Each structure stands twice: as C-alpha cells, then as structure tokens.
Amino acid sequence: MVIGVPQYRRTVAGGFAQGLEPALLPDGPRGAEGARGARGVEGEPSACAGGGGATAPPPAQVGYDTVTVAVRHGLETVDILRLRRACGAVLQTAGGSAVAFLVPAGTADLWHLPGSSCTPGAVLYPPTDPRWVMPPSGPDSVARATDAWVLRSALCEAACTLTAGGLGPF
Fold it and tell me: For the chain, what is the mean pLDDT?
C-alpha cells in the first residue's frame, strides 16, 4: 500500500467496503436487521417483513445523549455542520471549555472517537438559555439531535482543518 495515495475499495451488497464494518452499527453491515430478523424497532414488524401493510411511524425521540469536545474543535464542527445544514442542538458546558452536541439516545453505547466523549442523557435548558450555541428551533422549540454518523465525519474534518491551520493536534 502506498502512503498518501487514496485507497478505494469496492463495496459489497450492504454498501460497505469489503472487510470494513461501521463502528456505530451493533451487528456489522447487516445492522439491527441481522440480529432481530425481520422485526423492526421495539418488536414492530418492519416493512421488509412482508404483510405489505403500512407500518407505524417511529416513536418520538424521548432522550438524548451528548458528545462533548473541546470548545475550539466543537465550534469548527458546528461551522461544518451548519454548512451541510445538518447541525442539531448544541450546548456550551458550564465552564465554557467544551461544546456538547445532542445525539440520539443510545449513541453512548457505541461511540468511540478519540478527542471526544459521549455520555448518556442530556440536560435540556429552555430555548432562551444563553448556554445554547445552536438552540432548539421550530414552532414547539424542540431540540433536534445531530445524526451520529454525520457528527463523527464533521468532527474528523474539523480536526484535520485545525491541525492544518496549526491549531492541533488534539
């Protein structure tokens, strides 16, 4: 393998490169489908299970986990996510030295990224609280979580950008 040259791999039926499995899926490239058979979330039949009937909408998001990073790294990540129109609610920690991204509940069980920490549960403040970097918006002011895969990608991109600018390593 040559260093510095991009290595492209052919994808297989699941959409992932041969020999690679995504870190956030509990059962490898098959995802939750492989472990639960043709049953969906919380034991409800999925659309692929047959029966052809309409499925119930997914349950409302009850809780959040938080991914916390250093403030400079976090603000660069917020900029990247805003450009992609993929930024959910973001809080600044009490001491002001870190930024916390709201992610879907359950992410903490599977999160492994150096330079960040993911903890279960999140304290939600009123939308007018000054600790919000990206406050909840919309008619009901509901906090929207950032997709874990998109956040992971943006965190890596932000780390590369800051390191290239002389503000790293982390």
Answer: 73
